[in-house]
Amino acid sequence: MGDHELKLLGMWASPFVLRARLALSFKGLSYEYIEEEIFGNKSALLDKSNPVHKKVPVLIHKDKSICESQIIVEYIDEVFSGTGPSLLPVDPYDRAVARFWAAYIDDKLFSLFMMMIKGKTTEDKAKGRRHSFAVAETLEGALKGCSKGKSFFGGDNVGFLDIVLGGFVAWVHTRDILSRSKQFDAGKTPLLAAWLERFCALDATKAVMPDVEKLVELSKMRQARDDAAAAAVSQSN
Ligand SMILES: N[C@@H](CCC(=O)N[C@@H](CS)C(=O)NCC(=O)O)C(=O)O
């Protein structure tokens, strides 16, 4: 469990779990990782630790559970303020701006990802992808403003927003492979494209990044399953 009595309930492919893992990795904190079977057999520990949503990630710190990925990242930053780099900006206004963009990422980027993956028709999926390019352009402006010309949303170092967006990078690569295009295109969003490369090259990121080939396989499997279910429905009508 490491020196800090930390456990993380997770699922390897989850972008939200990746956020918690990134925060722990950048802080240099050790913890016990427990893989959950979220699509079938949720453990009694998960039910007990997140009775409201029964979702991962859940961080368990000295037997107290903390739910919701953004809240977990903030908690880690506050409780372990003396360990590793500081993640949230120091200035209250900069913190407010970071939280605004974090909410935007969850609200817009995540729902468009779901639309690209789970859209009922090819047109729905294409629409999701088109809208996600518009969201990337908005995030390009956010990166420009927050980084103040430096390498990361957090400035010279990775901060809260880098981790919030960073949770999605493995899925960005996965969608890029499946769609044979670039979500963060160097021509349209050069700052974001450079950020993606820089962020993925960091050791603390590499240490916790899920295997993109496995994510591609998982996506193909889910697609085949959804296609079979849709075909069965249309045959029964
Ligand atoms: N808003 C939550 C979202 C967490 C979430 O959606 N987790 C998914 C895995 S990606 C989950 O546990 N799903 C299980 C379920 O829906 O029953 C967060 O930021 O932590």
TrEMBL record:
GO terms for cellular component: cytoplasm. PROSITE patterns: GST_CTER, GST_NTER. Pfam families: GST_C (PF00043), GST_N (PF02798). It comes from the Eukaryota. The keyword Magnesium does not apply. Residues 4-84 form the GST N-terminal domain. The keyword Transferase applies. Residues 91-227 form the GST C-terminal domain. PANTHER family: GLUTATHIONE S-TRANSFERASE, GST, SUPERFAMILY, GST DOMAIN CONTAINING, GLUTATHIONE TRANSFERASE. Belongs to the GST superfamily. Tau family. This is glutathione transferase. It comes from Eleusine coracana subsp. coracana. The gene is ga07644.
